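Here is the promised in-class demo. Please do not try to memorize the tokens; focus on the logic of going from shape to residues.
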């Protein structure tokens, strides 16, 4: 949602602007993070006509856009362009409306004297805490161009890994989905007509034909209720996944699934190692790096591990010793992390591990594709074969007896 606000900055100058936020409370927090004293805030209403309806699905900022933006910012910093001019130039060139509004607001914040990290933090739906903390580290060390280069490289790697993993599942999901739709249509529209012919013939039907006809009768009679039940179950599962217990249970189940769980584990290890190595290389402390990584990791099981490691590290315990206690963390990772801590090269060790697990993800995806395709072909062949045999065999027997 888009909100308009009136506020007073630290120089007692009244300012007006807009802020993108999921709720009015989040909008108020975003304005206050800019160092403003809020006077008023209202949701901005837009035309409600058919052509003016703003669909959130088409009003989002993709990872690819953030990668390109970060690379452009780093290049302009290297060209000694001032931060204010950088964001002003980019806001004029961006095609995504939501990102353009955010960049315009960042320009306003920079003009008011806000640091870049605070201006970015006012848009958490676009710039993650990982992004903001890395920029903040660059501000503190005077190497913003390196920070944005780190961010662009990291986001590029993350986008590549996630895209490959998702693309491996799109094709089989599409094929299986079409197969299910075709089978349901056959069962509810074609089989009932053929079944009436077979039952009227008076011949004894094979057991598999009776089973197919029984399934067809059930689907034809209760297809509406089945659709409602499936939709209700889907909504219920989605709501359950939004709870802390539900998210943990689902993530734990995914990790226990053969092949798919192995892929998920390697994805999480890649992200954890990449996050930590990037932040440590930027001069961020291990405690702060763990805090941010716990927010970035989107698997509840590994988030709990990182949070537990954070508590232990704050208490003075070794990071590697904490990791070694969890079966979800491979022993080689804990051992190499221990070597990195002892030699003072933890960032380099984690970079090596991130590259290793990235290659493992690619291999796991290739393995998954290699397994899915033959299994899918066999399953589809069996389904079609059983359906055809259950219909064609009685018809053949009927025509033979005439």
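The designed amino acids, position by position:
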């Amino acid at each position: 949602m888009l909100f308009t606000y009136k506020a007073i900055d630290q120089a007692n100058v009244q300012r007006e602007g807009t802020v993108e936020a999921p709720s009015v409370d989040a909008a108020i927090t975003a304005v206050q993070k800019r160092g403003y004293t809020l006077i008023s805030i209202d949701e901005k209403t837009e035309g409600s006509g058919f052509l003016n309806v703003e669909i959130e699905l088409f009003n989002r900022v993709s990872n690819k856009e953030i990668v390109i933006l970060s690379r452009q910012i780093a290049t302009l910093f290297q060209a000694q362009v001032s931060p204010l001019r950088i964001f002003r130039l980019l806001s004029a060139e961006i095609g995504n409306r939501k990102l353009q509004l955010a960049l315009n607001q960042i320009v306003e914040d920079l003009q008011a004297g806000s640091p870049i990290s605070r201006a970015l933090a006012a848009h958490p739906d676009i710039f993650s805490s990982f992004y903001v903390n890395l920029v903040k580290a660059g501000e503190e060390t005077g190497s913003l161009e390196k920070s944005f280069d780190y961010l662009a490289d990291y986001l590029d790697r993350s986008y590549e890994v996630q895209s490959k993993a998702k693309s491996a599942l799109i094709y089989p999901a599409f094929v299986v989905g079409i197969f299910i739709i075709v089978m349901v249509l056959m069962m509810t529209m074609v089989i009932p007509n053929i079944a009436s012919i077979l039952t009227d013939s008076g011949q004894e039907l094979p057991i598999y034909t009776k089973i197919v006809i029984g399934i067809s009768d059930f689907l034809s009679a209760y297809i509406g209720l089945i659709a409602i039940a499936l939709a209700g179950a889907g909504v219920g599962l989605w709501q359950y996944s939004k709870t802390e217990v539900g998210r943990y249970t689902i993530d734990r189940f995914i990790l226990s699934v053969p092949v798919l769980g192995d892929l998920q584990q390697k994805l999480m290890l890649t992200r954890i190692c990449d996050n930590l190595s990037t932040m440590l290389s930027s001069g961020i402390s291990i405690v702060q790096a763990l805090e941010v990584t716990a927010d970035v990791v989107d698997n509840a099981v590994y988030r709990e591990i990182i949070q537990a490691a954070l508590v232990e590290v704050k208490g003075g315990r070794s990071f590697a010793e904490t990791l070694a206690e969890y079966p979800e963390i491979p022993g080689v990772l804990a051992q190499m992390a221990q070597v990195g801590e002892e030699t003072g090269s933890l960032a380099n060790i984690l970079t090596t591990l991130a590259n290793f697990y990235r290659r493992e993800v690619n291999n796991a995806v290739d393995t998954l594709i290699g397994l899915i395709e033959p299994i899918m072909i066999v399953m589809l062949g069996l389904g079609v074969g059983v359906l055809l045999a259950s219909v064609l065999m009685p018809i053949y027997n009927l025509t033979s007896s005439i």
